[in-house]
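Sat 14:20. Reprocessing the chain from the morning session after the first attempt stalled halfway. Input below, unchanged.
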Amino acid sequence: MRAFSVDRELGSATVISWNHQEFEVRYECLSDEIKIGDYYLRLLLEEDENEESNAIKRSYEFFNELYHRFLLTPKVTMKCLCLQALAIVYGKCYEEIGPFTDTKYIVGMLDRCTDKLERDRLILFLNKLILNTKNVKEVMDSNGVRILVDLLTLAHLHTNRATVPLQSNVLEASPDMKRESEKEWYFGNADKERRGPFSFEEMQEFWSTGVLTAKTRCWAQGMDGWRPLQAIPQLKWCLLATGQAVMNESDLATLILNMLITMCSYYPSRDQDNAIIRPLPKIKRMISDNACLPHIVQLLLTFDPILVEKVANVLYLVMQDNPNLQRLYLTGVFFFIMMYTGSNVLPIARFLKYTHLKQAFKSEEAKGQDIVQRSVLGPVLPEAMVCYLENYEAERISEIFLGEFDTPEAIWSSEMRRMMIEKIAAHVADFSPRLQSNTRALYQYCPIPVISFPQLDNELFCNIYYLRHLCDTTRFPNWPIRDAVKLLKDTLEAWKREVEKKPPSMSVDDAYEVLNLPKGQGQHEESKIRKAYFRLAQKYHPDKNPEGRDMFEKVNKAYEFLCTKSARILDGPDPENIILILKTQSILFNRHKQELEPYKYAGYPMLIKTITMETEDDQLFSKTSPLLPAAVELAFHTVNCSALNAEELRRDSGMEVLLEALSRCVAVLTASSKPDDMAVQVCGHICKCYSVAAQFEECREKIIELPNIIRDLCHILFYGKGLPKTAALAVQCVSSFAVDFFLQTHLYHAGVLWHLLVHLFNYDYTLEESGVQTSQETNQQEVANSLAKLSLVALSRLGGFTQTPHTPDGNNPVSETNGIEGTPPENPTIRKSLAAMLTPYISRKLGTGSPAEVLKLLNSNSENPYLIWNNGTRAELLEFLEGQQEGNIKRGENDESFGAEFLFTDHSKELIVGEIFVRVYNEQPTFPLEYPKAFAASLLDYVGSQAQYLHTLLAMSQSNKVESQQHAERLRFAEMALEALRNVIKNNPGSETECIGHFKLLFSLLRVHGAGRVQQLVLEVVNTVTSNQECVSNIAESLVLSNLLLLLHSLPSSRQIVLETLYALTSNTKIVKEAMAKGALIYLLDLFCNCTHPQVRTQTAELFSKMTSDKLVGPKVRLTLMRFLPGVFMDAMRDNAEAAVHIFEGTHENPELIWNDNSREKVSTTVREMMLEHFKQQKDNPDVNWKMPEDFTVACGAGQGELEVGGVFLRIFIAQPGWVLRKPREFLVSLLETMTELLEKNNPNGEALETVTTAAVCPVQYTDSAGRPSSPSGSSASYPGSTQPQEQRRAQELHPPHPCAIRQ
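Finished this time. Tokens:
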């Protein structure tokens, strides 16, 4: 700038211009910076790839400039910087830059280079290049995959990687693991020279001393021939290479694996339609090649968590639909991967799930259908873990594999994992250290013997379950079962295998002989056995020696035998396993009835054979693992599941076999037997089996043919106190049998009632009503209550009381069928016995009441018309039942009537009619009766049965014979029956109709004159029924009134009720007519005239009034009465009965009545004489009728000589013209007729005519303007001697009005 200023000043005359074209500023500070294009390389390399940076301008030109510089520079350092920059630019702009045409050249440089820094930069560049798919093809075409895999193997040399806190790492390489077997290398400088073997450390020493050169030919196992040292990756990069690597061996391997994963992801194995792509994509073919795949697999033995995870991912991608998948196991991948001890196992689980069943490690025939046999992991993992691989997703598998599980589907722990790793490590121990010496060593596959886990020694695995755990319903209740049908099939197969199991066919010496080990030198070490096995296995492996398959299998079998000889080996079937198989089937049939119901159980032959063998075994009750309980329980569950099974069991003689087992176990039952005893359990299960079988007709027929079943049931019931739950099962069995009449009868004759009835009295109703939560597991009384309910149901079904069975449901009343079906037939014989022992009332409730209600009644004290039940009756019945139990079980004896003639002492003293205690009913007459009409009918029948006796008793008493106590008792019972009849009719309207047809009987008892109480009660009965017109009509038809009439004289104390009865009966004309014929009037007149009881006389007058009012017979009654009494009395009785009595007892003289003591005496005497005469005749002959002479009339004497017209004494009427006549019109008509008659006579009686004429005038004088008769005082007409005021009557008599007086 100074020079420019000088030049401008000097050349002032000339215009000076700045040399813009060549101007530049040199910055010395940038002299060391490398600039390519517009970018400083250092700054580009220092940018963090993860940070956002400015986009690279003209990326394509810049990339080409970088690559150009890379090609031109001879310096390795500059090359590496360029490669680093190329990787960055391509990574950011690969889409803009597009495919890289020199990818093959980069791969070639990688193969040729010997500098570690350059190697790493080339690989990092390639890692970016594969972002473009076309570059991937270039890599594959230039053999890049194999070159990368060769570099992978260097990871085995990285021994100072970070230690991961793993559960166990038994294979991690360390300096103290050096062994002779690690001498892998051979070399030779001269032609055909061969030196070795040498260890890798020795090869390093040879290199340092110059013995080895880059061109020295070397060989180790795994190589396809001798090669120069510089062509062997391990020796090249460990001995020959220079420079400082960017990445350690593990990071390098991780990068290469990621590259392989990326490359594989570009070429899926299936298209968008999920069709398998063939040929297999080239990248996967190359990785699957034997030159690459084993080395990738063997990286698993580094146990580096990242490498293991990456390898698992690579293998999972490569093996998708890969034809070489079946031979993958030969690489040892399943051994190596299972030895991994880390926790990042999700990719491993994904890989194993896909591959474990697809390996051709056995022939298809040898594999069979068992998943464990088909899995390559079968020898390594427990069966459950293999099933988990197949049945669950990778996430769940990983969870199980890393956890601690002890369930029916998985028994797995860290200890088991550690043991598995140790066993696999021991199996591959001869190979893994070799990789430290020769990273390209190839594993020679050898099958591993099955690993036996001590934790599974006592376990039996079937389907996908450990049966011991599945059967442990305490720890694992209702464990879900995926496929019940499949599990059933598998258990049957397992059962068959277990039964057919034979002792080991090979001895230890035999195994040593097969493995070419010396015999007779004691036990060989495991390592020695393993080496012998490996040697022979490799020699005869079918893949290498197709003709050695048989020998290979022998070697394998011998090795397995020696490795598992410490396990539990039995000489034949294991009873514990069979028990688990039986229990599993029981669980299946119990929980999955609907699923299994359509299928017929195929295991009956084995099941019945098992039961038979166990039953016949002399050591049955001393076995440590008896099969019988589990076998008979299974028999129950199968039958309970399906009718098909019941029929199959019957057809296979299962009923008979079960009976033999039952009898064998019942024989050892005692009072001290415990619920856990084997015999007790067997009895319970067989009872349940028979309960269900009894639902089917053909099975019932078979049961009928086996009477010992019922005998054994009774024995079980006998021990019910000590074994209530087992007894409950026997009771349910009885309930099931009750569906058949013949079985009912067999049970009855076997004495089952004794055992069932005893259980009823162990019931505690206070527990039921307490509201306390109870359980049969913890409360013994709850068990007793349940047994009592079941026994009650069984009794009701035996008698045919119930149509649907009931079983206990916790604390609630019995409400469910519990498998008992069918309507039991009625059994009169059993009903009779139950009625005798439980009383008819309770026995009827068996069919109507709830069990809780009936049991409470049985265990409480009660006294009502139906039941007298107390401590005494219970104790008496229990004593009888316990005695029968003893006799039945110990001596085979039973009550001849089987309880039908049992009679309670308290009940024997009672009169029981129609199942009702008559005494109690009379004490509680308002007690609601179930069937009052039936009771009334029964009472009438009873009374009828006693009628003859009562008449005989009458004859005896009349002949003065002494009555015995028995006669008094019978008389008392008759009286009680009649009292009950009265009460039932009185308190139960409608029941009186039962008396219809029995009135002759009842009325005949009225003649039992020696038993006044009987007569009184019959009267009350008759009096009560008279409210019913049907009964009255029937009495009328019975013609029995004479018996009732006799009581009016013979039973003075009952006259009132007799009169009430007659009053009610006389509403029937026929009865009024009969009463006339049988002399009712003379009896009634006697009462009216001679009785001293005013109420009786009043009732009699009322009865006369009712009889005279009868339209048909009433006039005749009136005329008959008028022969004894003046007509005034009839009118008075009609209007006022009490007034009629007063008139009769008074003295009267008035126009209408002349009555005094003489007339009263005359009538009374006459009536009494006639009554006594008729009573005497009628007493001897009830059919005699009462007749009077036609001209008979009682001459009272009081009115003799008086002129009487129309019932009016004219003399007195004239003297008392103001007397109010009762029938003035009728009197006047009669008076005029009399007057006419007198006037018509030729010689009329003048006095009489005068009297009549005078009397005729009086009514005219004493009539009002309307012609109505009227008294001077205005009083109404009244009877002579009526109840009008005495003063009025006296005035009327003492001061009669003037005959001609006219009423104003």
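The chain has 64 helices and 20 strands.
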